[in-house]
Amino acid sequence: MVAVLTGAGVACSEDGGSGESGVAAAPSTLPSTMNAARLLPVPLTTAPGTDAGSAAGHSLNLPQGWNVRVWANVPEARMAAWTSDGKLVVSTGQNGSLVLLSPNGPDQAPTTTTLLDGLDNPQGIAFTDDNGRELMIVGESGRIVSWDYRDGALSNRRVVIDGLPDDGNHPAKMVAVRDGTIAYNVGSATNRDPVDRTSNPQRATIAEVAQDGTGNRTLAVGVRNGEGLSFAPDGTLFTAVNQGDNQPYPFRDDQGDYGRVVRSYVNENPVEQVSRIGPGTDLGWPYCVPNSGGTAELLDIGYVNDPINNPDGDRLDCNSIGRTMLGLPAHSAPIGFVFTQGSALPESLSGGALITAHGSWNRQPPREPYVAYSRWDDATRSLTTPTVLVTGFQNADGSRWGRSVDAVPGPDGSIYVTDDTAGLVYRLTPPAE
């Protein structure tokens, strides 16, 4: 059986010593609400012919009974998606290429080939069927493009939509596809400037367009950087959002810090958002701040007025825009987000979503990268409190030898995790149930 966890942590003793395997584990920077259970350090093995690079000699913290292997070398490995014929395509962002990994058996490195090169910051990848043809959809910085895919080769390039904003802080485009419609994100150009809501074209949105390029429309606004995109079991679209940095304290209370940037508050706020997206959705940024109110579970989160951009609520009524379904630790930077229904994962992991966090860039101390699993509740059509499955990319001093980006279920029942810092793809295998 796969261990069922109510939270997550590293396998360290109460005094910060070694875990059960005797391998020292770095202290966790995840909140106590995500540290209720223990993960065990599992030394990384390496598939023959693969160079472990900066991962050499390290462990990942995993549930009991899991194993992990450095599976492939892909410099700047970002997002990943499986083809119908069992190959893994990995985007490389600023490297400008898509890499095709063809498995050669569970204990072997895959055959690595360059599928495409010379692209403009390719990030999101999705495959879909179009009347018997397999299509590959890719998000470049300024456009969404599709190709026909067959037997490890591409043909018939088509630009679905062009001229998307590609400057500023968040140029990456992620994609998700369902029933002939492509959902994609347009991240904000700024950290917390309202100009992104009035720019032309508008930034900080989630949009959709038909595979033939028609019917482009905005679905959601106030989505600072909705890099995680995936369709839930009920067919609705979800996003995982990177929230802002250096958020001013939004409460008029006895603390006397209203409108100031306070490190103790910034370290845990605002929480990252995971929510359902539909036509007319507004996630509030940068007028409304997700307000967990100190609740332990980070579920069903409301908002408080931003003290700089919306102090009196006259720019946006923060009580009128709904609530955030699920919060993640502040500055987690969720990027990978995929629902696992219909996958070959064990039953305990095949009814929810894998969420992959890249870790913070300026939090002190740094928020560590991680992979988590959130179970889907059919009755409420919602995601539940996440279980952290993977940590260990961050050293005790806050430096990192790796950074997780995406985690996708494989056809063999393993989870494949990309790492753009170490330039690797890992194969994580849970025990059979």
Automatic annotation (TrEMBL):
It comes from the Bacteria. This is Pyrroloquinoline quinone-dependent pyranose dehydrogenase beta-propeller domain-containing protein. It holds the Pfam family TrAA12. Residues 62-426 form the Pyrroloquinoline quinone-dependent pyranose dehydrogenase beta-propeller domain. InterPro entries: 6-blade_b-propeller_TolB-like, Beta-prop_PDH, Quinoprot_gluc/sorb_DH_b-prop. Signal peptide: none annotated.
